[in-house]
Amino acid sequence: MIAYLIRRILYAIPILIGVNLLTFALFFVVNTPDDMARMQLGIKRVTPEAIDKWKQQRGYDKPLFLNTAADSAGTFTDTIFWNKSASMFVFDFGYSDDGRSISHEITQRMGPSLAIALPTFLIGLVVYVSFALLMTLFRATALDMAGVALCVFLMSISGLFYIIGGQFLVSKLWHLVPISGYIGGMDSFKFVVLPIIIGVVGGIGSSSRWYRTIFLDEISKDYVRTARAKGLSELRVLFTHVLKNAMIPILTGVVVVIPLLFMGSLLTESFFGIPGLGSYTIDAINAQDFSVVRSMVFLGSVLYIAGLILTDISYTVVDPRVKLS
């Protein structure tokens, strides 16, 4: 197990370097340090001297990848790419272009993101699996067909419709919860309850249909017929045998999603005014703040790789036949 983890971590290093390099290249294909300076200074007719000063203060006055004027190792290290990227591998994200600590912002904004994403994930998992088991139990009946039709209908609706429709109906017409904003502490419930409900409802279609497919695939196998031949009820077959043997494909989807919970939802946080990591990323993109963008992309890549490793480890828990070597 230890050797496997070390090998996977070593494999992750070139992947993170490649993601970092790609993010850097894509960002500076459409933006130059001069464009970033004009955006941050907020002045239409900014002087060249002000631009040069802004770039020098933030380290954008150097070449992008290669510094031919430097000697020896400085050719690679005295560049924007090295100065902005190398420190991230020790999780030192530095400062945004407006001078704020990125690590501090991530720490402060992780709470609001988790306040929405974690309940949405847990409640949604219970709802999706239960609905899928219900359709499987009544498979090939009118209830099953109605459930599949409902899933297809919900899948056909844009997630943006759920957000706007929920805000209009629940907040504007019924005045049950605030339409947007966020306050920490116990009062945060009234600000996150609507985003949580919308998140759960928006995922019913695709998730429940996917789980139904997994259960239907399992229910046609030989061990299920053997369990039925022994006189076990259909409910016991589903919950004792089918659900247990379907855990590996379920974990594949579930564990990989867990790291993404920390990154927040871009649309939900933006529309509901939640000061989480999702809205932080959107604001950075709009402001052309490269420091924040590359930090969030790097953090997302690290969490995703960690999720894949957790997925492999979880396989050994639910299925003793799986060995990591």
Could you please describe the fold and organization of this structure?
Helix 7 packs across helix 9, helix 8 crosses helix 9 and helix 13 crosses helix 14. The model has no long low-confidence stretch (mean pLDDT 86). By secondary structure, the protein is mainly alpha-helical. It has 2 domains: 89 residues, no CATH class; 213 residues, Orthogonal Bundle (MetI-like fold). 73% of the residues lie in helices and 0% in strands. It has 15 helices and no strands.
What's the SSE pattern? HHHHHHHHHHHHHHH
Beta-strand segment tally: 0
Q: What is the oligomeric state here?
A: single chain
Q: Please write the CATH class name of the largest domain.
A: Mainly Alpha
Cα gyration radius (Å): 25 Å
| Inertia-based shape | globular
Low-confidence stretches: none
- Estimate the helix proportion, in percent: over 70%
User: Within the CATH hierarchy, at the fold level, what is the topology of the largest domain?
Assistant: MetI-like fold
Largest sheet features: none
Going by CATH, the architecture of the largest domain would be: Orthogonal Bundle
Q: Specify the number of helices.
A: 15
The tally of structural domains comes to 2
Q: What is the CA-CA span between the terminal residues?
A: 6 Å
Strand content range: under 5%
